[in-house]
Structure formats: structure tokens, C-alpha cells
Specification:
Helix content: 25-40%
Number of helices: 14
Strand order of the largest sheet: 1-4-3-2-5
Distance between the termini: 58 Å
Shape: globular
Number of domains: 2
């Protein structure tokens, strides 16, 4: 059953009065990002608000009506575009509370709905680049990043909302099916909330950049003369390490990033010895010093840079490490004992990380050689997902104008408003004392660089 509304207040009243646990939400815009429809599914009825571009305060009103609801939606990125700049921090808080499911290219899977309304999941090899899609009842198949034709929008809203309800009832079974623990899924969900928000923050450049044609993968890569955009990909790499859907910020472009604010600063967040601290935390090896390389260099009596290269080689099992240095590392850290415990997670050519990501290698030999690399890369990325999520949430809660504009792996770039530097610095430090980085074994001490 479809019910159409022209009056926004009648539509919002349906949301406010609903006693359903979840609000299934669908927002559709045209190619110019002009909002056209908002659809919700309540009690098996689809309610559609039409001509929403006529309402100036639609995003604020919708946010207030959804405030105490649990939200289930299809594409978080697309939905965030709907909200105005001043409202955009609110969705981060709203969606961070209980975002049950979104189909945001998180898993290397195809999700489809057959004629009997049964959702099926088909695995795809993780080393092959695929994009998730939804096959709608109406026969329309859309790439999740593609904007829908206006004539199809109402049919798509109806099908999309029905699919969401079915998926919501089956998500736990799917999590088990794809060998993804609830813990891994939880942090991946957090990442989608945070990085979807970051994608909306334009990156300002000091001058035009002549991008090579091979890197202009999408038309919206350059939005205007001196703006750049990032499109993040959560499952392109075998370990789950985040990447951009195209390499949008090379060295030349990074050097041309400027603040959108008068006297604003472009600041970077620097983590000392990040991967090493993650692996020590995973292995429950205590070393609560900020610069682990410097500490070990002093203890052994050599240079920091030399120890850095040797320690990385030692932990990853490279033959490049000197035996006398390896013996000293083993005496101080006893990593070998714990690596054997992790090795028990290998099943054939697959390795299941501590956080629950299943990594499939090409063969057993490769798996044995690379399982530590997979463990560190995958787990370190989840640590950063959790950290970025906390930072974005605190920025939103404080209603800061400063923005996280870029983040790949342990690299974080912030466009900082001049009068907000102290609170930004506090948030950057404080966020590392909670969540996954609140460790009993190591100290994560991020520093702001660039002032």
C-alpha cells in the first residue's frame, strides 16, 4: 500500500506516532542533488512525501522527527547529501546511535531479491573488484553509486524499503554466513557513518589541478574549479584496509590543500609507531611508551631509524632482520610465542583475524607468509575506524565548524577553524583514550601537526 503526502507536517506526524522499532527510510534526489521524495515504511505501508524541494526546512524537521527512532536505510552517503551544511553534524549523531543496516559496499557480496521476496547472498572472490547492487522487483538494477532516473524513483522507493525490512530481519544470519563477527561488523558500521560524513566535506585547493585522465574516474571528482572530493572504499583491499575509489589526492594535490576559513589551518594527526602498537596490543605485550622505536634504540644502544626497520622486519617475519637484533627483540618482547597463537587461526588458505575478518589468500603458502600482515592491516584499520568515528561524533556534539576532510588508514587531515584549535586538539587526544585505543598494553598519543 502506497500513501502520498503533499503536506510535510502530516507526513512527519506519521513518523512521530509510529510505534515500530525501526523507521525504514529512503531519500531520493535528482542528478543536481535536488531532493524530490522522502519515503518511509511503517506497518507494511509505504508513505511518500512528494515535492520536498519546496520545503526550506525539510532536513531539520525530518531530523527532529527521527530523533528517538532507530533508522534503517539503503545508502548513507546518498542520504547525507540531503541534509544542509548546518544540519549535517546532526545525522552523524543520529545515525551513530543505532544504524542497524546500510548497504554501503561494505561486503564483497551481491544482495538480490527474487520474485518470492527471498534475499540471497552470493560470495565473490575478494581479490576481484566488484560493486554491490540491488535487483529490485520492478526489474531495475542500479549501481549503488548511481543516481536514479526521476521516472523510476517512486517504484524504487517502494522496492528499496521492502528490501530493507527483509534484510533487517536477516542481518545476523548474513553476518555469520560471511564469516564476519558482530565485532567486525559493528566497527565497519561505525566507519560507514564517519566516512560518509567526511565525504560530504569538500577539500579546498589553492589553485586548479590538472588531473591525469586516468585519475578522473568520476565526473564529481572535481566538483568546481578548486574543490576535490574523496570516495572511500571499505572492501577493495584483501585485508579490508580503506582506500579511495580512485587516487584523488597525490602529493601535488595535498600540497595545494587550503583552509576554507580565514586564518584557518590544515592540520594532520600523527600517530607514532601506530602499526607496532596495534600488534603489541593484539598480542597483549606491554610497552607503555610513546615512541617505541626510540625506547628500544636506547635499550639496545643503536639508532632509532635502524631499530624501526629491524623491528618491522622482525614482527612481519622478514629475513632482513639481523639475528643478534632478533634475539634481543625476542628477549624483550617474546613476540614469537604470541605469533604462534595467531597462527592457529589459519585454516587452509584463509586466515580469520582477531576482530573477525576472514582473509582469503591465493594459496596456503602465501597465507602462512602473510597472515601477520593481514592481522595487523585489518585490525589497525578497525582501530582507526573507531577513532575516526569518535572524533566525528565529538566534532558534531560540540557543533564545531572544523572538519575532518581526509583520512586514509592512519592518516587524518583536518580543516581547523582558527578559534577552535584548542578544542580540536583536546578531541584528537581524548578520542584516543576511549574505544579500541584505550589499551592496557600500549599508549596511543596522537599529535596535531601543521601549525
Amino acid at each position: 500500500m502506497k500513501i502520498f503526502y503533499n503536506d510535510i507536517y502530516d507526513f512527519l506526524q506519521v513518523i512521530i506516532n509510529s510505534e515500530d522499532d525501526y523507521i525504514y527510510l529512503s531519500i531520493k534526489m535528482n542528478r543536481n542533488d535536488v531532493p524530490l521524495y522522502v519515503g518511509i515504511l511503517i506497518n507494511d505501508s509505504v508513505h511518500i512525501l512528494k515535492d520536498i524541494f519546496l520545503e526550506k526546512n525539510i532536513s531539520s524537521l525530518l531530523l527532529r522527527s527521527l530523533e528517538n527512532k532507530k533508522i534503517c536505510l539503503y545508502d548513507l552517503k546518498y542520504t547525507l547529501k540531503f541534509f544542509s551544511e548546518e544540519d549535517r553534524c546532526n545525522p552523524v549523531l543520529l545515525f551513530s546511535k543505532d544504524l542497524k543496516i546500510h548497504l554501503y559496499n561494505i561486503f564483497s557480496k551481491h544482495i538480490s531479491l527474487d520474485s518470492e521476496e527471498v534475499v540471497s547472498l552470493t560470495s565473490i572472490k575478494t581479490n576481484k573488484r566488484k560493486v554491490d547492487f540491488i535487483q529490485f522487483n520492478s526489474g531495475i538494477s542500479r549501481n549503488i553509486y548511481e543516481v536514479y532516473p526521476v521516472k523510476d524513483m517512486q517504484a524504487i522507493i517502494v522496492d528499496e524499503l521492502k528490501i530493507l525490512k527483509i534484510l533487517n530481519s536477516k542481518i545476523d544470519r548474513y553476518s555469520n554466513h560471511i564469516d564476519c563477527s558482530n565485532l567486525y561488523y559493528r566497527y565497519l558500521n561505525k566507519a560507514a557513518v564517519a566516512y560518509s560524513s567526511i565525504e560530504q566535506n569538500k577539500i579546498y585547493l589553492s589553485e586548479n589541478v590538472d588531473y591525469p585522465a586516468s585519475r578522473r574516474a568520476y565526473e564529481d571528482y572535481i566538483e568546481k574549479d578548486r574543490y576535490a572530493s574523496i570516495r572511500y572504499d571499505f572492501d577493495h583491499s584483501i585485508t579490508g584496509r580503506i582506500s579511495s575509489r580512485f587516487h584523488s589526492l597525490g602529493k601535488e594535490e595535498k600540497n595545494k590543500i587550503v583552509s576554507r576559513y580565514d586564518r584557518g589551518k590544515i592540520l594532520s594527526v600523527d600517530f607514532s609507531c601506530f602499526e607496532i602498537k596495534v600488534i603489541l596490543d593484539i598480542l597483549n605485550i606491554k610497552m607503555k611508551v610513546d615512541d617505541i622505536y626510540y625506547y628500544l634504540a636506547n635499550e639496545i644502544g643503536t639508532e632509532r631509524d635502524f631499530i624501526k626497520k629491524q623491528l618491522i622486519s622482525y614482527i612481519y617475519g622478514s629475513s632482513a632482520v639481523r639475528k643478534d637484533i632478533a634475539d634481543k627483540f625476542e628477549g624483550m618482547l617474546n613476540v614469537g610465542k604470541y605469533k604462534e597463537i595467531l597462527k592457529e587461526r589459519i585454516k587452509g588458505n584463509c586466515y580469520n583475524t582477531t576482530m573477525g575478518r576472514l582473509i582469503e589468500y591465493s594459496d596456503v603458502e602465501t597465507c602462512i607468509k602473510k597472515y601477520i600482515n593481514g592481522e595487523v592491516q585489518s585490525t589497525a584499520q578497525l582501530y582507526m575506524y573507531d577513532y575516526i568515528f569518535i572524533v566525528c561524533k565529538l566534532f558534531a556534539a560540540k557543533k564545531l565548524k572544523s572538519k575532518v576532510i581526509y583520512s586514509i588508514y592512519d592518516s587524518v587531515t583536518i580543516d581547523c577553524k582558527d578559534d577552535e584549535k584548542d578544542v580540536v586538539s583536546y578531541i584528537i587526544s581524548n578520542a584516543a583514550t576511549s574505544g579500541l585505543m584505550n589499551s592496557d598494553y600500549v599508549i596511543f598519543m596522537p599529535k596535531l601537526v601543521g601549525d
